[in-house]
């Protein structure tokens, strides 16, 4: 219905179309620059957090994962198990399609390749035979893509040594598929948020762009963050990306709203949930106006206190 605005929970089940959401916000190469820059900001922060940032462990729970996997590409290198959760059944089905390599699954490969580049791909030195025409022969494993070959760094006795950079994006996809062990329903407005599902205390709870959509007001947002902190081990990390000044966003022709948040409200809610903010990076990036009205983004890493 024209002009209708939807809000978290049940309306997502009726109105949210995963493919519309994915093509609008995650068409990495072919979509608008604003959406691409936001994805790059997310991937850069996630890469930093899960490589040099010291966040890792046994279990990561992604809350409000939607139909997306980009937010888990760096984490899958440093967690034994990832539990992906969302409110909306069709989002969980879309995620399952990707996990099962269904032919209709969304193609995440441009984003996976970008993460592999952030991680430096892999540089290897190959000793290769020279062919009778004097060309170096390089054999690559089936799941690697050649990115760069340097000038020879050495040559002796019919063999030449080359520095080669290969992209291992398919290996990365396989690793993420292995690491996501469970896909569960969640509702952050309910206690417990994962219903009757038994999950171990998490080393990390990650939630990207979901709480501001799931919660209609600040009190609900604050209560939801307390529930998320309740899923963490003492000393575990909360990693979140929040749309600041959020008013609404479009999923195909449907308009969804949520809670308008400022940086201070986010930080205070995290602290009052028993977590210490370790890092808070806010940027003035906004989505294309036709898709989403917001005023910047905030990436936060926080740690749950020992006695909470
Ligand atoms: C904007 S999407 C974010 C999806 C994904 N995390 C991303 O980064 O693109 C918002 C998500 O919040 C979820 N959501 C809505 N209400 C919720 C609730 N009560 N509990 C948990 N998730 C909810 C929706 O199903 C949707 O997947």
From TrEMBL:
Stored InterPro entries: NNMT_TEMT_trans (IPR000940), SAM-dependent_MTases_sf (IPR029063)
Metal-binding keyword on record: no
Ranges in a coiled coil: none
Keyword Repeat: no
Keywords (A to Z) from UniProt: Methyltransferase, S-adenosyl-L-methionine, Transferase
Family, as annotated: Belongs to the class I-like SAM-binding methyltransferase superfamily. NNMT/PNMT/TEMT family.
Listed PANTHER family: INDOLETHYLAMINE N-METHYLTRANSFERASE, NNMT/PNMT/TEMT FAMILY MEMBER
Protein name: Indolethylamine N-methyltransferase
Taxonomic lineage from the root: Eukaryota, Metazoa, Chordata, Craniata, Vertebrata
């Amino acid at each position: 219905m024209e002009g209708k605005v939807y809000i978290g929970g049940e309306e997502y089940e009726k109105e949210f179309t995963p493919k519309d959401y994915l093509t609008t916000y995650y068409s990495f190469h072919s979509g608008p620059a604003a959406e691409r820059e936001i994805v790059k900001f997310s991937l850069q922060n996630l890469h930093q957090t899960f490589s040099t940032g010291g966040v890792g462990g046994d279990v990561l729970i992604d809350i409000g994962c939607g139909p997306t996997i980009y937010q888990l590409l760096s984490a899958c290198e440093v967690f034994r198990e990832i539990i992906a959760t969302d409110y909306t059944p069709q989002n969980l089905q879309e995620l399952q399609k990707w996990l099962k390599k269904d032919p209709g699954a969304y193609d995440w490969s441009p984003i996976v390749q970008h993460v592999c580049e952030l991680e430096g791909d892999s540089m290897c030195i190959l000793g290769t035979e020279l062919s009778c025409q004097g060309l170096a022969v390089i054999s690559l494993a089936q799941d690697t893509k050649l990115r760069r070959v340097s000038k020879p760094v050495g040559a002796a006795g019919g063999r030449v040594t080359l520095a080669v950079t290969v992209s291992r994006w398919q290996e990365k996809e396989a690793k993420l598929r292995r690491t996501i062990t469970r896909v569960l329903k969640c509702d952050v407005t309910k206690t417990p948020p994962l219903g009757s599902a038994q999950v171990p205390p998490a080393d990390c709870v990650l939630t990207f762009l979901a709480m501001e959509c799931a919660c209609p007001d600040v009190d609900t947002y604050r209560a939801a963050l307390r529930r998320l902190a309740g899923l963490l081990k003492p000393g575990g990390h909360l990693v979140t990306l929040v749309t600041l000044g959020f008013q609404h966003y479009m999923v195909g022709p449907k308009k969804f709203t949520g809670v308008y948040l400022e940086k201070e409200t986010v930080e205070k809610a995290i602290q009052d949930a028993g977590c210490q903010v370790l890092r808070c990076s806010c940027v003035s990036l906004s989505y294309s106006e036709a898709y989403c009205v917001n005023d910047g983004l905030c990436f936060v890493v926080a740690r749950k206190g020992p006695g909470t």
